[in-house]
Specification:
single chain; 248 residues; alpha/beta; TIM Barrel; binds 2-phosphoglycolic acid
Length: 248
């Protein structure tokens, strides 16, 4: 049985004081859940979030990192730096990074490797655009993205990788993929992983759905055979909504 994982992605939202009070509230609400609860917060919230989340079952993640350990990369943060704070997870290759910051599959692969090297667990995002879906190439797009993101990793490393299927047209738009479509897409990602790493890996790897997950649709999405939880943007900013999704 794969564990259910609910990860919030705050994006560029929440000041440290807001992060602290959010995490304090959420910690009580989700005290008893067996699901893995992760909050991926802005860099500037990491320190306070980690302190506040100590001795709770909320895990803290970052939303991005650089692939080099140190050097002349003004404005960047390395995996080693994240690890030194006690960060556990990091989102890699979110579609907003691919779209606005021109992250390629090659960069996503380098960051995934660097995260693992620093003992961070990458949440690797893949997903097709609306245009790609409309021309019927969505499966090819997401399986290729998956293959390239994970290229060169070994089976053992895959145990610490989470994949998130996030159709770009469903992110922040209020449009959710139907649970059947999301499940099919995630099955095709699992098949690709089976081809590249074997059946044991494809059956144990956690694959999330993301894109307008909210309290009203989370239960149905998370009950599908291949969907192991969600990567939640907008609804992770409201503590009551996020609680409902976690407990769904
Ligand atoms: P959304 O974002 O839930 O606001 O659609 C999801 C994401 O970008 O991870």
């Amino acid at each position: 049985m794969r564990k259910k994982v609910i990860a919030g992605n705050w994006k560029m939202n929440m000041l440290p004081n807001e992060a602290i009070s959010f995490i304090e509230k959420l910690a009580h609400m989700v005290e008893k859940t067996e699901n893995e609860v992760i909050l991926c917060v802005p860099y500037t919230d990491l320190f306070y979030s980690l302190l506040t989340a100590q001795n709770t079952n909320i895990k803290i993640g970052a939303q991005n990192m650089h692939w080099e350990e140190k050097g002349a990369y003004t404005g960047e943060i390395s995996g080693k730096m994240l690890k030194s704070l006690g960060v556990e997870y990091v989102i890699i290759g979110h579609s907003e990074r691919r779209q606005y910051f021109l992250e390629t599959d090659e960069i996503v692969n380098k960051k995934t490797k660097a995260a693992l090297k620093n003992e961070l667990k990458p949440i690797v995002c893949v997903g097709e655009t609306l245009e790609q879906r409309e021309t019927g190439i969505q499966e090819q797009v997401i399986t290729t993205q998956t293959k390239l993101a994970l290229e060169g990793l070994d089976k053992e490393q895959l145990q610490n990788v989470i994949v998130a299927y996030e159709p770009v047209w469903a992110i922040g738009t209020g449009k959710t993929a139907t649970s059947e479509d999301a499940n099919e897409a995630i099955k095709s990602i699992r098949n690709q992983i089976e081809k590249d790493f074997g059946r044991d890996v494809s059956e144990s790897i956690i694959i999330l759905y993301g894109g307008s997950v909210k309290p009203e649709n989370s239960k149905e999405l998370f009950s599908m055979s291949d969907i192991d939880g969600g990567l939640v943007g907008g609804a992770s900013l409201k503590v009551d909504d996020f609680e409902k999704i976690i407990l769904a």
